[in-house]
Amino acid sequence: MKQLPWMSLGALALAVAGVAPASAQQKSVAVTAIVEHPALDSVRDGVQAALKEAGFEAGKNLKWQYQSAQGNTGTAAQIARKFVGDKPDAIVAIATPSAQAVIASTKTVPVVFSAVTDPVAAKLVKNWEPSHNNVTGVSDLLALDKQMDLVKQVVPGAKRVGVVYNPGEANSVVVVKQLQALLPKLGMTLVEAAAPRSVDVSSAARSLIGKVDVIYTSTDNNVVSAYEALVKVGQEAKIPLVASDTDSVKRGAIAAFGINYRDLGEQTGRMVARILKGEKPGDIKPEVSTKMELFVNPGAAEKQGVKLSEALIKSAAQVVQ
Length: 321
Description:
alpha/beta; Rossmann fold; 20% strand; disordered N terminus
């Protein structure tokens, strides 16, 4: 009879041993984005889907948390500090401002950036080689010559290209500088309009009326989060809008030859899964999304005063009705 307590403890030990491996497999991923809009939301959802595919499911063996900075860089810094303090197995930072905030807050917690146009210019990494520190990620860098080819297909003879952007976002400044260098070679000029906040997008777009033949929108987060305001100006002033992200076509841009941000998120999620399985972020080379798709919106084209060629419509991966 005196052995029963010992046997009970033994049984308890076996039970604990049986639970231990599952507990040891529990991983945690914290995700932050500078703002919520369809493209960045698609990245977040793609990350989660890829992690599930790799065997890491929220609510089972994965602790998943997500916070948006709602377009505020100060809030992004607060979220970064909070997440670093939580010591997750990886932090996913979506868009340049959030990535900069997280990387400024930690040198030890693995950080995977996503939807960052130029991580080198944004000083997230020194180059496109493995960082040998705690940072890696996936870029949404676009070939601007192909973007301008699309502009010419939508608006043949376009000479003056307008761009609305946030001069405080490194992501957007890089694109503007590249356009300043590229457009003169194509016989075109760039007309800039600054929108430091999302609420400035409408007035910035209106400042371009009469000055441009087309407005090209990059993945500037202020602009994309307020895209409907830009579309309203485009329709009223008959200024065609050509975007760099396909989600904006669904919201009123005429066309975009861009990245599928759900795919970008899944690519990012596969990278995070490698880290959760033991790889060091500093050993993983930053990647660029290579899957490009053409979306067109003939209805938006009509409202903005242009008619798309049948050849362009037929070549699209998706025609938005």
